[in-house]
Amino acid sequence: MEKRIEDIFSKMELELTAGQGASADLQNWSLNYLKNHRSRYLSDYKLVERYYSKGEILELGSAPFQFTALLNDLGLPVTGVDIDPGRFEALLKGKDFKVVKCDVEKESLPFEDNAFHLVLFNEIFEHMRIDPITTLKKIGRILHPDGFLVLSTPNLYSITTYINFLLGKGFDDPYEQFEKIHKFGHMGHVREYSVSQVGRFLKETGFQTVEVRLQSHRPLKGLWSPFNLVRKVAPGFHAFQTHICKYVG
């Protein structure tokens, strides 16, 4: 299966390199995103294999639609949701999965109650700037009682964050993150959270955590490579946190 997934990613990369994008900025961003997140996508797919058994799948904040396309190519019934899918019209041309336009913080999710057996909310939580509490409650409404929410987001207490703070950089360049609204049509990172902070959001909005995973999908390099050992012996320093939850209301 991993070979098949890598073949799909290689095809995506060729398409993006050939210029199948909505604009130069979005094309370059999509290509870099694919290169930087291939290993995360593979890890996310393993979670889908573990927690999905039947029914419909929803991926919220699915731009640049790479994981959505992967699931679709593997024969899974997936729907994507994006704040403005029209940005990616050229990239989405010829794709046969459904994409729904919706601002998940400002608008109601246009789906029936209990409609999805798996909801993916990966690398979106850190972008939210209005009301993550209400957004999580909206997800609870559309999640089937037998289904799962998979939520991944950066870990505030990762080694890379500590290094950035020591270098005086903070966890991200705020101007660069806000500039993404103008360049790409979506907000960059607003803030990052600790594992316990994300856990509280989930608990207070009606979710019961089944599993929490801490992972780093790319090794540190150069002067910082010794810290890879720290991440192995102290998982709390990993770059990403993933929460798998059921909705209990």
Please render the helix and strand layout as text.
Elements: H1 2-17, H2 24-51, E1 57-60, H3 66-73, E2 78-82, H4 89-92, E3 98-101, E4 116-122, H5 132-142, E5 143-154, H6 159-166, H7 174-183, H8 195-204, E6 207-215, H9 227-233, E7 240-247
Helix pairs in contact: 1-2
Structure description:
The chain is an alpha/beta fold and about 250 residues long. The protein has a single domain, classed as Vaccinia Virus protein VP39 (Rossmann fold, 3-Layer(aba) Sandwich). About 40% of the residues lie in helices and about 20% in strands. It contains 9 helices and 7 strands; from the N terminus they run H-H-E-H-E-H-E-E-H-E-H-H-H-E-H-E. The protein has a 7-stranded mixed sheet with strand order 3-2-1-4-5-7-6, sandwiched between helices. Helix 4 (about 90) links the parallel strand 2 and strand 3. Helix 1 packs antiparallel against helix 2 (about 25-50).
